[in-house]
Amino acid sequence: MDFKKQETAVEPIDRWFMREVYVWRKGGSIFWYITCLPILTMVYLLAANINIFHPIQTLIDVFMTIFSLSMVIRLVFILIINGALIWYSSAFFTVTPEIGETRFSNLLRLMKVSRLCHLGVYCMSSVILAWCCSCFIGGKYSSLTQSPDGLVVNLNEPHLFLILYGLFLGISFFSQFYLDLNNYLEFPLIQRDKFFQVRSITGCLLICCIKNTLKQVKYFYLLYYLFGSVPRSWVMYNLNLQFSVDDVPLDSIYGLFNCGLLWEVVIFGVYINYTWSLANILFKIYQTEHYSFPVEDVFDSQYQRCLYDALNCNIQPLIKYLGYLDLYSLAKFSAERRKRIFCLSQPGGHPHTWNRISSVCLAEINDLCGQIEAANWKTYASVPIKQANVIDRSYTQGEGMNDSQYYHSTTLHSVNYNNNFNNITLNNTNPVSENNVEPAPKKTFTIWREKFSALVSKKPGIGYFMGELPDSKSRVLFASSQIQIWAVEALSDLVTASFEEDKFGIVQRSLPTILSSLLNLQENVEKHFKLVTPVTRRNNKDIFTVNDATLRYQLQSVLKSSIYRIINKFGKHIRDLPMDPDCSKKLRPFLEYKE
């Protein structure tokens, strides 16, 4: 009976982490955001009511407004709205960037039910904040209606204009949250204290928010100029309001050239963009902070909460990423924790810790290697083979062929590649698989669907949305490669550290397998770079720019540096390892420092 109670009391790592770590980190980020929000609101209040001709009077008015009861009530309301918005938005952050292959697929990503609810929350919050800020400004922006003579109630269009701009801000920020991958939890290359991370981005964040706001104002002014009469007429009809003959409609060129209104709109846009962006950045900083998992479950309280469980957690990807980050940090910086990986279990004397951690890392590396190899095969298969009367000499002699020869060689015969793309043979028969089984013919529906997609994509208007984005397939392939980058670095650091710290030689037994996996992945990555046309991207220093496209280049450099790190440490002893001839052939350029 006691054993059953103890067994049922064991909590999986995902539930424990979400309850003990994730919630506290989320609460900490929201707490500091709520702490900064009153200061930012006071700065906005000062900027919105500034009068360059009477600066002292402006300071006095702002000071009196800050300590008024209405200001305190609205400020508390703003804190509650923003806190609830960030708490709700935290569920939509992800550690793997979601990349669409076409513009149409990117739009479809926004049409999910959960994300439409998220859009509604953003719009409602932005409209409420616009109403609160219009009350802060006062004057002609404080109310939706005005009655100069006390008899006829007229529409106050500047107030409506500011409210509609708040609605536009909510839609714009929502689209940027997903389309610009602002919900991507990007782990920093260098782990620093949270205070220094926030301090280093505050200035850049303000500049980026000003640029973003000016772009949003440009589009909103254009939309209001074209369709501004629609919401104005709807409000006037439903609320039975009149439009004063003395007021200039804001959907006219003269009405939009209102400098005071433009200033209030820009300041409000900067305030919303800055506060919401700061909240997202604080959440990312807290959630991507390094967490140290116990290497072994020595105590009962650590059962199913050790490093291996984090590496093998697929229910919550954030735990898995933090586990690999901890393994990378452990392998590079912590000699004391490395000893626990190199030790043997008692009783029995088996390297269970090393076997479990290395097997999980190798499984991730081999999985990515298989995906890249399949993508390379698909790219090779998509290249059309033209007809020719003369067969290249290298084919008839059975010589190897590099990637460039593949594209320029033409033949009527079928070309069969082995897994390494090196040996090539010619057959006069129809192309068959390795098991001499003809591939199943495509279904009629699949053929017609492909023809229809190809036809539609050629249309100028539809092709813009249905056409494949450049470099999208490669970005999707390497979207989750941050785990493999940490796994490769961790394994290489553990292998090099084992040369002096491994007293039992448990790592050297796995060295051929590790080298084989690294070499296979390195070979497939290099072939992928040769097959994929590189896309030149503008050097955008925007703080909102997501660097997911650089993951593949990081993986390429990490693979080479990791292999060289192992070779430099073990030197000539590498040649004595029992390795396959194919792996020895791949390793030879590294041994000769020609790669």
What descriptors fit this protein?
mainly alpha; 4 strands; elongated; 24 helices; protein transport; two-stranded antiparallel sheet; two-stranded antiparallel ribbon; 595 residues
Structure description:
It is elongated and about 100 Å long. Helix content is 65%, strand content 2%. Strand 3 (414-417) and strand 4 (424-427) form a beta hairpin. The strands form two sheets. Strands 1-2 form a two-stranded antiparallel sheet. It has helices spanning 2-9, 13-48, 55-66, 69-89, 103-109, 113-137, 157-179, 194-227, 229-239, 253-256, 259-287, 307-311, 317-333, 335-342, 352-382, 393-396, 403-408, 444-457, 460-466, 472-477, 482-501, 506-531, 551-570, 581-591, and strands spanning 145-146, 154-155, 414-417, 424-427. The chain is mostly helical. The model is unreliable at 1-8 and 387-441 (pLDDT under 50). The termini are far apart. The chain folds into two domains: 13-287, no CATH class; 300-372 and 475-591, no CATH class. Belongs to the NDC1 family. One of its GO terms (molecular function) is protein-macromolecule adaptor activity. The chain crosses the membrane at residues 30-50, 62-88, 119-139, 160-179, 221-241, 253-274. It is found in: Nucleus membrane; Nucleus, Nuclear pore complex. Keywords: Membrane, mRNA transport, Nuclear pore complex, Nucleus, Protein transport, Translocation, Transmembrane, Transmembrane helix, Transport.
